[in-house]
What does this fold into?
Amino acid sequence: MAKIAVVAGDGIGTEVVAQALKVLRVILPDVETTDYDLGAARYHRTGEVLPDSVLEELRGHDAILLGAVGDPSVPPGVLERGLLLKLRFDFDQYVNLRPSRLWPGTTSPLAGVKPGEIDLVVVREGTEGLYVGAGGNLHPGTPAEVATEESLNTRHGVERVIRDAFARAAKRERRKVTLVHKTNVLTHAGGLWARTFNAVKAEFPDIETEYQHVDAAAMFLVSNPQRYDVVVTDNLFGDILTDIAAAVTGGIGLAASGSINPERAFPSMFEPVHGSAPDIAGKGIADPSAAVLSTALLLDHLGHPEAAAKVTSAVGAEVAARTPGSALSTEAIGDRLAEAVA
Amino acid sequence: MAKIAVVAGDGIGTEVVAQALKVLRVILPDVETTDYDLGAARYHRTGEVLPDSVLEELRGHDAILLGAVGDPSVPPGVLERGLLLKLRFDFDQYVNLRPSRLWPGTTSPLAGVKPGEIDLVVVREGTEGLYVGAGGNLHPGTPAEVATEESLNTRHGVERVIRDAFARAAKRERRKVTLVHKTNVLTHAGGLWARTFNAVKAEFPDIETEYQHVDAAAMFLVSNPQRYDVVVTDNLFGDILTDIAAAVTGGIGLAASGSINPERAFPSMFEPVHGSAPDIAGKGIADPSAAVLSTALLLDHLGHPEAAAKVTSAVGAEVAARTPGSALSTEAIGDRLAEAVA
Ligand SMILES: CC(C)[C@H](C(=O)O)[C@@H](O)C(=O)O
Ligand SMILES: CC(C)[C@H](C(=O)O)[C@@H](O)C(=O)O
It folds into this structure.
């Protein structure tokens, strides 16, 4: 019996998570969920971001389903560093998984790119790089101020995520891994990534590989996203590239993500890429598809690949069946998906 | 009389620079040019990247016109760090200027975006951030390896480039500046950038401003590039965003850049964004337009705004007059442009 911690969060987070749970309960009837009140609302009410006791309780779960946390009223960094990144780091969620597909029934903003043609997954490193928070401000607020940010990368951290990317590629049809970095400028970290990539690649002789600088990859994601299968990259580059991948597949409405500890030594976390969207919160019009697709990633991670595939296909079919111009409510989409997987 | 150092470089660099010089000599007949042999070819022949004596000679010029340097046979970082970045840093070229326009006669890969709708300029910081090369490898080649890269940012460096961006926006029609950073994760450097932006903005009360995280900006450059006028950002973010901007305006065929020291205390450097393209080198088919547009940026920087505008319009007109499917040679395009500005 899977134990899932639910962090619905702020704004549309609560709305989309309700639908994701509806679908999850149909496909996994004995799932046990516990709600955790975290995010901007709690921060404003109590000043707390992630109390240690809550962190300990979360640790006891098989996975976390998260809606969205955040609000413009919270200073930048508070919830990001204190909640989202804290969970990624403390729970060693080193595989930040972000699939991008151009679904039948959707249109890419790219002229001439047809549904089905884009089907890639970015394996973004989740526990190192510039996200470690190592930095500071000297003489802050004066003309002499110096601000630093340090990117920390270990062979341990780089190797495990690259190996994960190869293992995922081995299970896919095209069997190709693209390493993205900036080895010509970030020679120290780039050297480590490139050497490690070459070492791991030797273990997977039948996987096609290529290397691209991050600026070139950003361009190719626009001019030729079809070329990618599995992309492995560092934390910050992955943050940027996955948003480009989302954009060329029609936006973040269908973008799912998992922050995964593949060994299941800690709970992994699954969340739509979109934010809390305060502008449309409470209106019942948010699209829950990305949250439901994130639930599919959760199911796959917990060892239910058929259930995951069923949920994913249900979303694909629902999207394909939409009538242009007539938007369904959050709840209506959730109902359709729950029915489809029943 | 302007003294220009010409670094034609490798591959198509020599071909496009020849055409750029043809145009430059028509519009600025008394220009004095000196060729410098730098790049992959010289590196292979002599082992030298940028001898001190050459650096000193370059210093005596008003500007540098560069074609492209690089070849896959050179290890990553050698020419980038030893030549391009060395010039940017030693000559304090802190404004890395990259305009992107969707020219009449070209088509964007973005469906429904029409020529004229995209007209933005990225003011990328050029002398700080992760490009400083501060980093190292501990226990290299062992399982215990740690690699670091440090982003260094000063109030001095951030303020001058932000002020330059505002000054440029003040001369444009839309008068809008977008700051792009990642303040929610890179809180130290992001804090410095955001505080400095707010301070400078107070000096330009009639300029519209906005802030975006780099991942959101990467997405908006695809979904709504029309929204941007002047974008100011750090060195690495600028590297990535300008390639997305190039992609949505039809690729790097028309992407020009200037690495500028606005005070003219040191020579500024102007170059097409494209590389040496060994695959098409020597065939006479490279499009020299980006090199010619870079020459227009050079003219503007040296105080010839009318000449710059004339060259820019000539390129625009030539591109608009192209017959789809019948590509002109490098030389033929150069001839047309030289004729047009005559
Ligand atoms: C909210 C922020 C910390 C986060 C990130 O930068 O990783 C978000 O952009 C994401 O991609 O999940
Ligand atoms: C070649 C490389 C050093 C350079 C950069 O990263 O700045 C290039 O990508 C550019 O954008 O001019």
The pocket of 3-isopropylmalic acid (ligand 2) is lined by residues A 184-185, 215; B 80, 84-85, 239 (CB under 6 Å).
